[in-house]
Write the structure tokens for this entry.
Amino acid sequence: MKRFLRKTLVTLAALTAWSHSQVLTLPALGTEPDSILTTQEQLVDQVQEKVVKLFGAGGARGLESYQSGILVGNNGHIVTSWTTVLDVAKVRVVVFDGRRLDATVVGVDPANEIALLQVEDAGLTGFPLDSKPQPTVGQRVFGVSNLFGIATGDEYCSVQKGVVMAIAPLTQRRGKTKSLYQGKVYVLDVMTNNPGASGGALVNLRGEWIGMLGKEIRDEQSGIWLNYALPLEVVQSSIDRILKGTATLDLETAKSVEKPHRLPDLGLTLIPDVLPKTPAFVDDVRSGSIAAQAGLQTNDLILLVNDQRIDSRKSLEKILSTINRADSFQLLVQRGQELIRIQVRP
């Protein structure tokens, strides 16, 4: 009875949510996928088993400790947005039936701000990785996510119904964090991009996965918050690069160069290395040093070096040891709520 009531409530929410989206002219039935699921409940049931709730680092205002993820393939992989929520040794995953699992970060694709996690074999089946549905402008879609962190157990994720308003490049510059990804997105007419929704699934009326809900960002000209999703082909390409190991450096096998960059030579002092994975926070920047000239500041958090993920002070030192001191390199740092790229030149 409990599950029946839950399904009924979610189905009613999906039918009534965001009714303003219906102001747009909906496409003729001939333009929709061939095998539209016959009821809202069928779609909800089919998709909910493939969307998970993620819990990790954060908790401060503007830095939520929760977001959404999408199960892909049959090996326990979860694709999601790359955010500070993942800055923990183990990310807590809650699946549709309430089970709580621990996931590790397999890798990230910094260019698209996408991360891939994996849980131990738990009999989970995700969306197929070889799916190729292509939505069109005016097509009806559903966003499925754990917006506002409402679901914490076996409750269903929230379902929102809307329309693909446009397919356009992402050109914003403002938001809770600046977006590094500037490629094509699906602009939606429903308020999908809320706290916790990042990493959720966008599906069509057949329940086919067509995209991933993006981060909270704001249009640089109008100041309006954008509701958008990354296209499926973008997400698939990131998954492929991560699984092939082309998006990150293998620190276990990476070889150090004879004359590498070192933190003291750069004029950087980080916070003391007292934890198994102490974050690469800048404690001090020596005046007139290479780091100071590049624009690094105290309290910057170093996230990437040459698009290689930095999850600790040790990983930063290891990656620097692979770069010749005569060579330039690029950093991505978090300064407050902004992401900033910095070019370091010897």
Notes: The helical segments are 2-16, 40-48, 232-244, 263-266, 290-294, 313-320. The chain has six helices and 20 strands.
